[in-house]
């Protein structure tokens, strides 16, 4: 027989912990929710990049007012992941409108559009999607719409977030919505088997129907339970991070990726600074040499400001064990490529809250198993996608040789084979839509195809058949992309938006 959850205690006041508290409280308003953390401690300053789903989670499910959020948090809008240099490949984007790379006015000439994208449109500056054009012209998604008499926004974007602003905003939102924030530090966890009996600080004890471990890689609660940790076949395990000054007019509205000798560099532009990072494999380079490479690559950062983070790619196979759910980095982490961490964790928080609501706040084996299956699929989907970046990499160092040996999953291999045999298949073989493949919702087939084509994958379907684009289709394509170019010209850049246009919001 299950037991009813009347109170939830979240340990850890980072972004994942606060988002979980907000999700549980909003979807289960009768449940008492509290967050325990040392709120006097400094908030980690690593810039947070997200993907498109974050906006619906924040402004849809969590009901966060978008105007208030923009005013207080001051995000930068991200339109793509921009691979400026990936193992010597020509620069390319992974945009958030990968399912709209060409116009298709009717079904009679669908194959022509697919072939055009394969042959000419996959990395052409002339045939950029709107997301790609926004990035190349350093624009925000905002523009003035005379028909509406005010601001309008292109929706296929995500956020770059300054963690201090974001975390401070989430704290205030928790207080406004009845989530108790307790400034304390857990020092002891009392357990009986896998069950968390109580938490102890130096001054008091905490008991709860459900505990959430959101303590990051410290895993204060999760480490007290018996659970298998599934490691991913990725050699990366360390990141260096620092910030540089940035003029808002110079914002690049994309997460920018460059290849290093032993990993890759990121650039995440936020309202306050340019966040730089180097993700590398410590097996192949010393920390000192990695720091030197990082400083040589990144202008404007101070050696004394560089911070190191260590991680093990993988996840716990059971996120929810007995009366404790691990979320965020406490549950799992792959690596920063494609900015999956915050958005997947926010989705996990919403999934947890929704399951609790739909199950009458009763915790039993069914709800734990259901949630654990979702988490398992989510992390495997992330690894599926990220692993493909290395399968097609052709760097020449020992690290890149090791990276190319990563085994991609059956799901990823299926889509690679699909692309080779059938090209850009709009519908994909029905097996891809079965329960085994439903975790592709994070990265749909078009996203896989866009990535691997830009990384050099070819398709025997297109290479062995005599396709050509007809004049009718070409005229349609030219008009379509010309409209995009003209449209994006009218968008505000981030400086213009925050120092003028925001007043029209």
From TrEMBL:
InterPro entries in UniProt: FAD/NAD-bd_sf, Flavin-dep_Halogenase_NPB, Flavin_halogenase
Any Pfam family matching the protein: Trp_halogenase
Domain of life: Archaea
Gene3D superfamilies from the UniProt entry: FAD/NAD(P)-binding domain
Classification via PANTHER family: FAD-BINDING PROTEIN, FLAVIN-DEPENDENT TRYPTOPHAN HALOGENASE
Protein name per the record: FAD-dependent oxidoreductase
Source organism: Halosimplex aquaticum
Lineage of the species this protein comes from: Archaea, Methanobacteriati, Methanobacteriota, Stenosarchaea group, Halobacteria
């Amino acid at each position: 027989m299950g037991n009813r959850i009347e109170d939830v205690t979240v340990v850890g006041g980072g972004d994942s912990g606060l988002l979980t508290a907000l999700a549980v409280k909003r979807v289960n308003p009768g449940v008492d929710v509290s967050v325990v953390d040392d709120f006097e401690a400094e908030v980690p300053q690593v810039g947070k990049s997200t993907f498109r789903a974050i906006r619906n989670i924040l402004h849809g499910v969590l009901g966060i007012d978008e105007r208030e959020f923009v005013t207080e948090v001051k995000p930068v809008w991200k339109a793509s992941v921009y691979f400026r240099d990936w193992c010597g490949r020509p620069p390319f984007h992974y945009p958030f409108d990968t399912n709209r790379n060409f116009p298709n006015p009717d079904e009679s000439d669908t194959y022509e559009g697919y072939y055009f994208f394969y042959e000419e449109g996959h990395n052409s500056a002339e045939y950029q999607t709107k997301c790609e054009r926004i990035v190349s012209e350093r624009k925000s998604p905002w523009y003035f719409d005379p028909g509406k008499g005010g601001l309008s926004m292109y929706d296929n974007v995500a956020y770059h977030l300054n963690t201090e602003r974001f975390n401070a905003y989430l704290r205030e939102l928790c207080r406004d919505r009845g989530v108790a924030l307790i400034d304390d530090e857990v020092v002891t966890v009392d357990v009986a088997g896998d069950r968390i009996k109580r938490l102890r600080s130096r001054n008091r004890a905490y008991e709860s129907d459900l505990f959430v471990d959101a303590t990051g890689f410290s895993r204060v609660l999760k480490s007290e339970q018996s659970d298998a940790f599934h490691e991913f076949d990725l050699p990366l395990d360390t990141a260096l991070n620092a910030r540089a000054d940035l003029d808002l007019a110079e914002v690049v509205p994309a997460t920018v990726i460059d290849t290093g000798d032993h990993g890759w560099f990121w650039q995440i532009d936020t309202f306050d600074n340019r966040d730089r990072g180097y993700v590398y494999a410590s097996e192949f380079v010393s920390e000192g040499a990695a720091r030197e490479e990082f400083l040589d690559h990144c202008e404007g950062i101070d050696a004394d400001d560089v911070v190191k983070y260590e991680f093990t790619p993988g996840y716990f196979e059971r996120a929810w064990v007995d009366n404790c759910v691990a979320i965020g980095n406490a549950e799992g982490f792959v690596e920063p490529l494609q900015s999956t961490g915050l958005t997947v964790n926010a989705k996990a928080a919403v999934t947890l809250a929704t399951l609790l609501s739909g199950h009458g706040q009763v915790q039993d084996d069914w709800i734990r198993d259901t949630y654990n299956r979702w988490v398992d699929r989510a992390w495997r989907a992330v690894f599926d996608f990220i692993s493909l970046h290395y399968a097609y990499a052709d760097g020449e160092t020992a690290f890149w040789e090791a990276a190319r040996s990563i085994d991609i999953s059956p799901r990823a291999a299926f889509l690679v084979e699909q692309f080779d045999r059938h090209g850009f298949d709009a519908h994909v073989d029905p097996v891809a839509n079965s329960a085994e493949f439903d975790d592709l919702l994070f990265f749909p087939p078009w996203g896989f195809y866009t990535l691997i084509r830009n990384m050099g994958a070819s398709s025997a379907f297109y290479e062995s058949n005599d396709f050509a684009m007809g004049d009718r289709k070409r005229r349609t394509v030219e008009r379509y992309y010309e409209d995009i170019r003209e449209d994006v010209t009218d968008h505000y850049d981030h400086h213009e938006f925050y120092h003028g246009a925001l007043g029209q919001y």
